[in-house]
Amino acid sequence: MKRFWIAIPILALIIAMLPVSAFAAQSVTATFGVVVSGPVESKVEIRPGEANIENDATNPMPAGTVDGVYTIEGYADGEESIVSITFTQPGTYTYNVKQIANEGAGGIYDTVEYTVTVGVVRDEDDAGNLTDDLKVAVSITTEGSTSKFERVTFTNSMPAPPPPPPTPTPDDKVYNLTVTEEIYGEAPRTDTFDFTLEFSHPDKELPTSFEVTGSRFPNGGTIRFTAAAAGGSNFSGSSSGTDKITATFTLGHEQDITIKGLPDGTQIKIVQTGGDERYETKIDGTLDPTRTADRAVAGADVKVDYANGYYSDPEPPTPDPPTPDPPTPEPPTPEPPTPEPPAPTPTPNPEEDIPDDPTPLDPGDWEDLPATGLSWWPIPVLVLVGGALIFIGLKARKKTQK
Fold it and tell me: What's the whole-model pTM score?
């Protein structure tokens, strides 16, 4: 029993002197490269795939993994990024690698998807015995291909620039189409509307691209058209039935677009969409519920003005101006009656005996005269004056005769 207690400290000393690595978990790191080349930026995602792992361990992921996804982003210079993953257990691990396109860059993105397979096994010593050391082998493949790749490679590109618009000859004069948009009333000025253009020509084959300017494209540019179905709907005044070409664009408040280089005789159809049911549409100042404009190039530039808006309450009717009352005519002022001239006084005969003192008419007799509506007082005065003159004349005559 005494020997046992002596052996315990000796055994502990021996254990303490053994190398720590003999009992520590072994690990190994696998690496592979990822290259993205081309004129547009993108990002690459690495996700764990299916695995045949001997000890049911989960797939280890590179440092910096978030929610099970490791992302490489923000580069397109062709330099190689090295992905490192550390393993502590033997097994077969797979990873799916694909590129995520940057939708706003307008590029053509490589859509191939890669499978990275990592095999982890125990190493052997010189005698062929398995050790605790691990070693790895990395294989990179793509679906549908038996080839193996040294690295994950994505090659992106930009679409080929459209051909330049044809240069018109002096005998082939061209014209411009301008489309404008304005929002009025209580409608928000931040709304936008979509437009579909359709061009055709009864005699000429139209190009598939045109130069554009205007506030919608302040730096200029090119608008590309695609072929519409042959024999489609014809424009007003056209029955050619030839193929149509179409394009789309968007306009907001106080924006416009000018498309240059339309040959004379080009048939134009513009259809506006967008906005809710409250909106009304005016084309060149006239309400148009169809929101469609049919035009034709006829030796001059074409301009189409769209306006959209609404009001919460209808506009009150404009009252008619009040009709003034006709002036009340003043009653006519009656003219005073013109008195009849007095009857002529008979010339007295000198031979007759005229009394020296003629008796004037009794004023009481005036009341017996018939009422005529005229004033009769001048008559007796005239009679008295006439009688006085006759009397004086007779006196003077008798004096002369004596």
Answer: 0.40
